[in-house]
Amino acid sequence: MRFLGGRWLLGAVAMVSTLAPATAPAPAAAEVQESSDRAFRLEWSRGGRKLDGYVYNQTSRYASRMRLLVEGVDGSGKVTAATSTWVPDVPPNNRTYFQVAVPDAPSYRITIESYHWIQEIASGDDRRETRR
After folding, report:
1. How many structural domains are present in the chain?
2. Less Cβ crowding at N or C end of the chain, within 10 Å?
3. How would you label 9-44 residue by residue, b for 16+ Cβ within 10 Å and e otherwise?
């Protein structure tokens, strides 16, 4: 999903992956790999005093209890505020919506702090479970 319209342009924010926390912020809605196995991608925008967006799960595994760290960053890259939010479930090869209230800052970065793998979805006929 790409965020379109003036709201996205006015609310440009920054994103950094967990693999490169010292990397300069990228524009909002940029695709960023968030784990060493490249399992997730974040896409988001700012609207007023909140950030809302999606976590994309690019695997066949079910992720649960994901915790996102949202940091407000000033022009020099210094963190001015931090908050976190929970994303309960991110289905395999799908996305989950999130929204978090944030203090005012020139830009933001979101990092996936933690998550748990629940299961892996089998392919083909293996999906059908026979019970006897």
Report:
1. 1
2. C
3. eebebbbbbbeeeeeebbebbeebbbeeeebbbbbb
